[in-house]
Amino acid sequence: MSDSTAAPTRRIPATAREHRSDIWLAAGLFVAAVLSTALGAAAGVFGEDTPGMEWGLVYAAALTAPLAVRRRYPEIAAILVALAFFVAGSFRLPELYVGNIALFIAMYTVGAWVDDRRRATIVRVVIIVGMFAWLLVTMFQAATAPADEVGFSRSGAFSPFVAFMLMQLLVNVAFFGGAYYMGDRAYAAALQRAALQHRTAELEHEREVTAAQAVALDRVRIARELHDVVAHHVSAMGVQAGAARAVLERDPDAAREALLGVEASARSALDELHQLLETLRTPAGETPDASTVRLADIEQLVEHARENGLPTTYTVVGDPIEVPPVVQVNMYRVAQEALTNARRHGGPDATADVRVRYEPDAVELEVANTGRSSAPVRAGLGIVGMRERAAVSGGTIEVGPRSRGGYLVRLRVPVEQSAPAETAGVSA
Predict the structure, then answer these.
(1) Which of 19, 119, 331, 371 has the largest CB neighbor count within 10 A?
(2) Count of alpha carbons within 13 angstroms of residue 114, beta-carbon side
(3) What is the pLDDT of residues 381-401, one digit of tens each?
(4) 102 phi, psi to nearest 5 deg
């Protein structure tokens, strides 16, 4: 998998707002720790043998200050909080609740925010092992202390003292296990959110690329259609205008006829351009009111080629079948381009032959001409456009010079089997 498509392996960094919330959390816990220490001292949690309130303030600051940077330096914050908790317990500071909350948050933060999972595991395991070692030491001390100092009866196999020790053990297992598990789950959820954002960004990029490609394809489509329409008629108009200039002085009537042909070609070009614009303006999936060209209109192309000095025959083989409109337009344009190239490049003695063959499951267009190769030295938009039309229609095209001279364009498009349409004859 490439880097551009690989799922993220690191969670999204904390935002400035999240860092500010950590500072407010630390400040709130500091106030709570001070109050808890004062109230614990007033309640005599550990009797009279407790440090003064000034040590309570130091403890509250040491316990909560690392939480202000818990998402910047999770491992360091967790270790400092654990040390403060250990020192407070060892010196019997009368604070029982805020320290547990702070330690849970610090342990959770290591699991939720450290991208190096091995380091996150090591830090948490070290803290857990240290805390349980401390717990076992205190349990041993309580078990070996005089009975009047413990406060719980030790008589019986399952004495109140044993029950209290087991309760302490189970609470610590639930405490550290919960912090460990919830931290890991939070990290996994963060990775899923990062992956979702990554995929969303990729989809947005692909949407932009697709939109740009659609615009480029539309430009190519418009250029192809304009080339097919303009090149054919302008080529004919050039031939007719040249003929009119040649006979203008000695045969005004022939010149007039040639100019009428120029006018007719210009009108035809305008009509086709109008149809093209109507088609381009029509939303996808709708059919414009103005009908586009069809296979039957190829006969008019042949007649137009004859009128402009290219002797051309036209043959329809087989019974016409139902052909999709897009395929009909594309085949018409291919025939138009092939005849235009034949007239422009085939030479003065060139002739052309156009054949449309209907088969049960396909339709084939063949345009062959004699004379020189009708292809330009370098394939231009016309040849490229014919190949594109063949690909769009789902067919195959053969374009190239013939061994006996001239040029051949053969387009074959498979179509679904359909009942025969109307019977067509053969014309020449």
Answers:
(1) 331
(2) 25
(3) 678 878 888 887 888 999 988
(4) -65, -40
